[in-house]
Design goal:
Elements: H1 2-5, E1 10-14, H2 33-42, H3 47-53, E2 56-57, E3 63-64, H4 72-75, H5 79-89, E4 97-101, H6 108-117, E5 121-125, H7 129-149, E6 157-161, E7 178-182, H8 191-199
Parallel strand pairs: 1-3, 1-4, 5-6, 6-7
Antiparallel strand pairs: 2-3
Amino acid sequence: LQKAREGKKVFYLNLEELGSVWMNFMADGKYTMSDVLFTVKSKKANVSMKLEMYLEVDKSGVNFFDSCRNPYDIFSMTEDNLKTIFEDYLFTKDYEYIVVDTNFVMRDSFKLLISRYAAKIICLSDGSTTANEKARKAIGVFQMMEKEEDCGILSKAQLLYNNMSNRPDCSIIDQPISTLGAINRFGGATQSQIIEEIAKEQLFENI
C-alpha cells in the first residue's frame, strides 16, 4: 500500500482459498479472479489482453484481481494456470512489486510460487504456541523443498509476528530463517484502519 502511494507500480494477487479482496481494496465487482481462471484455462490467444480487462485499480493505486465468485475456482487452479498468470501476464507488465497472499498448501502451484517466482517469502505467526508450531512445520517443509528442488527458499524467507500486544516474547527459538519484526495488535480497529497502520510500519523497508 505504501509503495503504491510512493508512486511504485504494485500488483496484489490474492490466492487464498477463502480470500476476500474487498476487505483490503475496493473493486467495482464486474470481473473477478473466476473470470481470470476461466480465461487462463480456455488457453485462447491474447491471454494478456483479456486479463487486462479484468484488472481493478484501488484508490491507493494498487492493481489487483477481485476475489473469485466461487472459492472452488481457486481450489481448481493448477500449476499451468499459475504459470500463465505470471509468465504471460504479470511478468510482461512493468510491476515493481507483485504481492501474493496465499495459504500454506502442498500443491504444485504453491511450490512453483515459492520456489521459482517469490523473491521474498513472509511467514506469519502471532506468537502463540499453536501458531508457532505451524510456523515451525512450514519452515521444516521449506527445508525439505530446498534440498529436493535445489532452490534457495530459506534465504528469502522471513518470519513476521503480528497481533503481539500484551503477549510476552514468544518468538521461535533456533529457526533457520530471519525475523522481520513484530506488529502490535490494533484493538477495536476496522480492517481498513489496520491496513493503514500496518502500511506505516518501517520494518517493511527491510523486505
